[in-house]
Amino acid sequence: MHAEVGDRVVIHGRTVGTSDRGGTVIEARGPDGPYVVRFDDGHETLVHPGPDLTVVPPPS
Fold first, then answer.
1. How far apart are CA 43 and CA 60, in angstroms?
2. Are 11 and 20 in contact (CB under 8 A)?
3. Residues 35, 3: contact at Cβ < 8 Å?
4. How far is CA 7 from CA 17, 22, 34, 39, in A?
5. Hey, which residues does 21 pair with through a beta bridge?
6. Does residue 51 lie in a domain region?
7. What pLDDT is attached to residue 54?
8. Side-chain half-sphere CA neighbours of 14 within 13 A
9. How far, in Å, CA of 49 to CA of 60, rounded?
10. Does 1 reside within a domain?
11. What positions does the domain DUF1918 occupy (predicted)?
12. In the prediction, which pLDDT does 57 show?
């Protein structure tokens, strides 16, 4: 999974009743991750890509 700085990511909830989380990539530490993501609530964390992550490129 490839993402670049400025791309939006969505981490889908893995259990029933868990909502999705969205954020913006603010740093890419490798070509395929991990990524530093600032979530919509302001929290920043290191995210390793997996099957529950979707990358949404910015609109052109």
1. 26
2. yes
3. yes
4. 26, 11, 14, 12
5. 11
6. yes
7. 93
8. 5
9. 24
10. no
11. 1-55
12. 82
The DSSP-derived string for 20-46 is: PEEEEEEEESSBTB-EEEEETTS-EEE
Calpha distance 21→10 (Å, rounded): 6
Structure tokens at 14: 């893995």
Return per-residue pLDDT of the chain as tens, 60 residues.
789 999 999 999 888 888 999 999 999 999 888 999 999 999 999 999 999 999 998 777
Domain-located, residue 27: yes
Whether 2 is covered by a domain: the verdict is: no
- Count how many domains the chain has: 1
User: Cα dist. 9→43, 51, 55, 59, 60 in Å?
Assistant: 14, 12, 5, 13, 16
- Domain boundaries, position 43: 8-56
Q: Is the distance from CB of 25 to CB of 9 less than 8 angstroms?
A: yes
